[in-house]
Design brief:
By secondary structure, the protein is of the alpha+beta class. Helices cover 38% and strands 20% of the residues. The protein has 15 helices and 16 strands. Strands 1-5-6-11-10-9-7-8 form an eight-stranded mixed β-sheet. Strand 9 and strand 10 form a beta hairpin. Helix 2 crosses helix 4 and helix 5 runs parallel beside helix 9. It starts with 19 loop residues before the first helix and ends with a helix. The relative contact order is 0.11. The mean pLDDT is 93. The structure holds histidyl-adenosine monophosphate. The site of histidyl-adenosine monophosphate has 27 residues, from strand 6, strand 10, strand 11 and helix 11. Histidyl-adenosine monophosphate binds next to strand 6, strand 10, strand 11 and helix 11.
Length: 438
């Protein structure tokens, strides 16, 4: 194996220790936020039968046509796929376990998702989503709650002002309305068939709605003149969309209606929405979602309305870093040093006792001079160094050094020696005093 082959798969990244604290900070904020809105966690497998995604997401979508990591199980020939999104798998689990038989459900998941796209800033082949689904709710009130919930999260994460995080919404109507719109859209686009690019021509009769999403500037005039779905909405769809807008305005949430937003997955109806920022370049969609009322029935369940969204964690983390919003990772409280031999055993036992007392402890591992251990202790960010040398071993004591600059009111601003019985309490008191003067 050449040197070059020892790398991660293109578009799939390691999370290195230097970046882990901001991810942990994000995950802690997000789980609190989800709990506060009554959401429960569901974890589905990373691998599902391929047909779950084909059925759920739709055959004529970028994801199913060209982005899925699908493979045949060598041992039994089953057709499997690494999840390219959460929704289809979560709906499969809801149907399989009859999760909505007695009540609606608010569910969330978090984890890796796989799409074979061309990697670039903010776009990866393994990325991570926070995915949220509310099933069994039909009215626009839950649509509004979901959007308000996201507006709150941007504030919690301190990113609401970075690159103008903004909201776009649209209404895709119901099946009959979409069919009428689709028919007119095909007739309209057929008039320009010779001006369409290859992608658009291919989609003309399979998924013409996606042509409206094209980024090709040569098509922008044609797209601008195309019939809009909003003109085809019946009374009920219009009432749903109006109901959502009334609630958003009442909550003081700014939005724009983007009649060309179609989303890349086929299961949506009525409300769709995206939160977008300018701060991340071309991949600026932080979060996208919408209603999928026909989906659960399509997956074999009883007709049950639903709405949800997926959030790209890498993109949100990039904004958090830009805003400098994450708090620094808390270091361990104590770093324990020793002189090897029997003092190593003593240090090992002292470290365990301090952990019993509730302290976070890093024990020095390996042989090193006291000087070099003190340097490591300091660099660790710990508040205190606890030293177990020959003298301490002989007298059943430990020497404590305060590592962070503190003021004179600290119980041991520089250095003190404690009997082992008193050590845990002294360090806990010392930490309290330090946090009060900080
Ligand atoms: P989606 O719009 O395909 O929706 O993805 C949701 C979010 O995932 C995007 O807004 C973006 O932030 C992030 N994302 C997508 N592709 C990539 C990529 N290649 N690299 C990094 N981030 C990416 C869904 O997945 C739906 N299942 C959402 C949903 C849930 N709708 C209803 N319920």
């Amino acid at each position: 194996m050449g040197k070059k082959t020892l790398s991660s798969v293109r578009g799939m990244n390691d999370l290195l220790p230097a970046d882990a604290p901001v991810w942990e900070w994000f995950e802690a904020r997000v789980t609190d936020w989800l709990r506060s809105y009554g959401y429960q966690q569901i974890r589905t497998p990373v691998v599902e039968y391929t047909e779950i995604f084909v059925k759920g997401i739709g055959e004529v979508t970028d994801i199913v046509e060209k982005e899925m990591y699908s493979f045949e199980d060598r041992l039994n020939g089953e057709h499997l796929t690494l999840r390219p999104e959460f929704t289809a798998g979560v709906m499969r689990a809801i149907v399989e376990h009859s999760l909505t038989y007695d009540a609606p459900r608010r569910l969330w998941s978090m984890g890796p998702v796989f799409r074979h796209e061309r990697p670039q800033r903010g776009r990866y082949r393994q990325f991570h989503q926070v995915n949220v689904e509310a099933v069994g709710f039909a009215g626009p009130d839950i649509d509004a709650e979901m959007i308000a919930m996201l507006a709150r999260l941007w504030k919690i994460l301190g990113i609401e002002c970075v690159g103008r995080v903004r909201l776009e919404i649209n209404c895709l109507g119901q099946t009959e309305e979409r069919l009428r719109h689709r028919g007119d859209l095909i007739s309209y686009l057929t008039r320009f068939e010779d001006q369409l690019d290859a992608d658009a021509r291919r989609r003309l009769h399979t998924n013409p709605l996606r042509i409206l999403d094209s980024k090709n500037p040569a098509l922008s005039d044609i797209i601008a003149g195309a019939p809009r779905i909003t003109e085809y909405l019946g009374e009920a769809s219009r009432a749903h969309f109006d109901g959502l807008q009334v609630l958003l305005r009442a909550a003081g949430i700014e939005f724009t209606v983007n009649p060309r937003m179609v989303r890349g997955l086929d299961y949506y109806n009525l409300t769709v929405f995206e939160w977008i920022t300018d701060a991340l370049g071309a991949q600026g969609t932080l979060c996208g979602g919408g209603r999928y009322d026909p989906l659960i029935e399509r997956m074999g369940g009883k007709p049950t309305p639903g709405i949800g969204f997926g959030m790209g964690i890498e993109r949100v983390i990039e904004l958090i870093k830009e805003a400098g919003a994450a708090e620094a990772c808390p270091a361990a409280d104590v770093y324990v040093l020793h002189q090897g031999g029997p003092t190593r055993t003593q240090a090992f036992l002292v470290a365990e006792r301090l952990r019993d007392a509730g302290l976070d402890v890093v024990l020095h591992a390996g042989e090193a001079s006291m000087k070099s251990q003190m340097k490591k202790a300091d660099a660790s960010g710990a508040q205190f160094a606890v030293i177990i040398g020959e003298t301490e071993l002989a007298s059943g004591t430990a020497t404590v050094k305060a590592l962070r600059a503190g003021d004179a009111s600290q119980p041991f601003a520089r250095q003190a020696t404690f009997a082992l019985d008193a050590l845990g309490d002294a360090l806990v008191d010392g930490l309290v005093a330090t946090s009060e003067t900080a």
